[in-house]
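Cross-check.
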Amino acid sequence: MKKSILLIIILLTFKISFSQNEITENQKTESLIYIWGLLKYKHPKVSKGDFDIDKEFISVFDKMKSIHTRNEFNLELFNWIKKFESKKIKYKTNTNFLETKRLFKKSADFSWIKNSFFDHELIELLNKIKDNYNYGDYYASVNKMSSAVEFKNDKNFINFNKKRKSHRALFLASFWNKMKYWNVNIYLTETNWNKVLTELVPEFLSDDETTYSLGKDKLFAKLNDSHSNYNSSYLFKNKKNKFSLYGGRIVNDTLVIRTLFNESLAKKENIELGDLIFSIDGKNLKQYYIDKFSNRISASNENYLKAILEPYYLLSNNSDSLKIGLMKKNKTVLKKYIKLYKYSDYKYKPVTLNIIGEEKWKTITQDVGYINLKEINKSELKKAFKTFNQKKGIIIDLRNYPKNLNKSDVPNFIFPKKKVFMKLLAPFTPSYGKYEQQSKLKLLYNPFSAGKKNKNYYKGKIVLLVDRNTGSMAEYFGMAIQQAPNCITLGEQTFGAVMNRKEVILKDNTKIDFTGAGAFYPNNENVQRNGLKIDFVIKEIALNYNENKYIEEAIKIIEGK
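Predicted model, tokenized:
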């Protein structure tokens, strides 16, 4: 009896021990992606392009199929790394590096090394690579002129086949590590970037094509970067997608219809400009677009998500109709279906609500001038400021993307002297950034200062209008204008993506952008994701929607009402 009990205990102990040593496919893949990225950007030889790192990934990934325990995995990965070693290889450690002035460390997260199931020998080797500063710039380099990261030798994977699990895993490994080591804004993601990897590995390993396609959308959405719209996404490239006849503006939890793409067809559905849509498919509007789109569109903030959806995509689906909750202008509430069309099936004849602000510049009241930056050029801007010189205030409308101006064109009229309006956070080394990178370009021309010495600068009130349509270069312009001594910013949260887009070629030969640098006000206040500073927040109301509320509130500020 005692022998039987002892045997059972031994068997149970063995079973528990074996189960603790087991390793899943997801765990193997996640760990391989971590190690592969570290080798690619920090190893003394691999980082110099001495090996085909993509093929190495595929080879090891395929070998892992026969590995079932952590011990086996540790040994395989250790031997794989040692394959890249030689007598000539030299590791260099810069003990003073982390004390470098202006070094940005928030994106540097190597906790995965010690928090993993790696054995002591492997951890020791990985830390050695992590601390190495004798690395090459074959796969990624920082341009000395612009301080921008470049991936000149890191292209698509020839003969990429999405049906092969190893190729899908390589797709994830390549992009995820690019962002981990070279996106200085990666610390700002809603979900910690390491956790993003854990979350998405199963979706990239799935053999279901739709799961994989949506997994890509989710990966890019997790960047929380308004510059990272994936034009080859499942959402945008879905050929079955159909659209409604209506575009609008999302106000709180309601879509105010501002555009009819075909007025005669809209009349048949008894829908007019100014009507309100408050629900879709039985869900309130906000819940609907958060559930359906927030994991499919990269957005720095919810306001940008609204800006992307409200013109077309909010009321789109692959069905022939969409159920909506509608409030007419006379307050009648209806539940009804609206027809959806392929984009080419309805004749595009848009009709929109009339608003103030389509002119390049104009006098609004005796005391107030108005300038719209969207289309105005430098000579027209000069005429406007000359005309408005004695007015109490000027409204500058930046709810748009300026097409014909440079960043100093407006400041030249409203600054008493040249001023620095932002600090740049640029890539420096793998995982680390540096404030105000002293590039050769900056020695010749400082792109982060604006204005000039001007004793005759405009001294009245400046009210800068911004909203969800103020993004990228418009935010850059806005940061400059805000440095005027008498500028007040009125509106709502902007894009939250200021600096230049940086293009990445993905392993399947599609492309995506990300914001290549961080933008801060001179006082170190971050703009990425947050958007521009707002002095007076505009709170719009859907019911009896006022298209001209921004202008009216700006006039009140100028006139002191």
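Residues 361-559 form a domain with the 2-enoyl-CoA Hydratase; Chain A, domain 1 fold (CATH 3.90.226.10). The mean pLDDT is 91. Passed to J.P. for a second look.
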